Amino acid sequence: MTALSRKPLATSTSATNAIGHWHMPPEWHPHAACWMAWPGNTVIDGTKRRQVLDDLARIAHAIALFEPLRVAVDPEHLDEAHRALPANATLHPIPVNDHWMRDTGPTFLLDDALTPHALCWNFNGWGKPALQAIDADVHVAARVARAIAVDTPIGCSHAALVAEGGSLLVDGEGTLIATETSILNENRNPGLTRREAEAVFRHWLGVTQIVWLPGSTLDAITDGHVDGIASFVRPGALLATGADGDHEWAREARENLRALLLARDAKGRHFDIGLLRAPDFDALPAVLADDPDFAPEYVNFYLPNGAVVMASFGDATADAHARAVVQQAFPARRIVQLPLCAIAKRGGGIHCCTQQQPACVLP
Q: What terms describe the molecular function in GO for this protein (predicted)?
């Protein structure tokens, strides 16, 4: 194990004593706000940055229809963000390198008395700091917690391992799904065992059953984040990425699906799984289909209060089918489907750009 992973489980920057136990609410728990990030130009610049900002603005405007939106904005780009983002968004001047708030921001917890807490995962550039400008992003989680603390009492702690928010899926009933290639990767947690990782997750996330998926050795960015593989619909039910064909990506998708089909959750149930198949690359513009980082993952959606904000990628048949599947999975929610090109070409999706701050209420 690393020196970091040997830190006490309650390593913190403020009080960490829970009333009862900490737990990570599921994504359908009512939200107090959604957090996003408006990046500087240290990672992307020029035309690519402009295209990413256009995608981010569309996502922000969609989410702001349903819940409060708070955005960490690189201080040099506040005027730009004010022009592009919804008028009802709250902007916080916080140095930001990139826009992946799911991974750089904190995971929000509640205890049994509904006391909020921000958990930082010690972001290290997905284990590839030499390839990323992360000097600001390593501090985003703690700075977000401090911004909240201005008007809402909230504690802040650092977990005893390196991870990202996109590494974690919970059902609110004690089940966590994670991938081996991400959490147990030597580029994050050298020598960390499953048992050691599970102890951290049990302590902070309130889970009792950890379902490990094989993940991805082909994903050169996140090493197989689980939020590109599956998403919980409700306890016991998932939507998962499906893929046909004999290529390497399809084989990995089937291995992860097989692991999900064999698994049981914290209540002893097998998962009810619906498939969201990838678009036909032959039906997509070449500028997308030929990009090695392009990640057309329909499961990478966000659940604002009362809605689902999901992506379309340009294959009209696959986009319509994915929307229908998601609507069937969430019949009481309004579906908002947005074209996503620039962000998907950077290897992520809507879920990757957002982080829910749960309301301090009973579900």
A: agmatine deiminase activity; protein-arginine deiminase activity
